[in-house]
Amino acid sequence: MHDFDQTYWERHWRESPLPTEPSRVPPANPYVVDETRDLTPGTALDAGCGVGAEAIWLAGQGWEVTGVDISATALAAADDRARAAAVSERVSWIEADASAWEPSQRWDLVMTNYAHPATPQLEFYLRLAQWVAPGGSLLIVGHRSGDHGHGHGSPDGTDHPPHEATATVEGITSRLDPSIWQVETAADRTRTTGGGHGHSGTLHDVVVRATRRVGTDDHQ
Ligand SMILES: C[S@@+](CC[C@H](N)C(=O)[O-])C[C@H]1O[C@@H](n2cnc3c(N)ncnc32)[C@H](O)[C@@H]1O
Q1: Into how many domains does the chain fold?
Q2: Which of 18, 140, 148, 177 is 20–30 Å from 84 (CA)?
Q3: pTM of the model
Q4: Ligand 1 site: residues with CB under 6 angstroms?
């Protein structure tokens, strides 16, 4: 077992065979596409953006996107892809540990897609929630608890994340104070993918989207 620290993620991305042709770049996660479809484009943060598929897709929809990731290698690939997709002017990339980062800005949409840091998963989600502007949205797509293994590409042949990198819908929504958050989506989802994001086979996910009520501050 290992920590999901910067060393781990930097090695993960250095060893990943990343497609260089834009036509072979994996599409954005369909849950992100579905959940943001009816939102009015504004500012967005993708925490743990990896090689940028979702950030670039959002930029293509008119959002002003910040992608933050702990891996410089992932961000360099994301930047190349944003140029290839001709959305560079609407995306900026920040190398930071989002579990310690203290951004001065708030965003209309804060999303995270399969990011799992070295810190507890729920703590990470609640930290991101603080960065949502009043009236804005929090979107979490994560690995669902209960179907886990030893880690991506682990020797046991599974590609399931370990338990500590997973969450349940109830675990997330029960931590969102209803006086601050209106939960719009809280769903278990299953899909099959051919891979491309470092994930392949059947994915068991949680999808939570919530709106920060207007007039609430960022204590949660
Ligand atoms: C499984 S990948 C998912 C990447 C991308 N969101 C996707 O869905 O393809 C997890 C990402 O989270 C990033 N990450 C992990 N811990 C982080 C942290 N503490 N701060 C910022 N990024 C982090 C990793 O570098 C990696 O790019």
Answers
A1: 1
A2: 140
A3: 0.91
A4: 4, 9, 48-50, 53, 68-71, 74, 97-99, 113-115, 117, 197-198
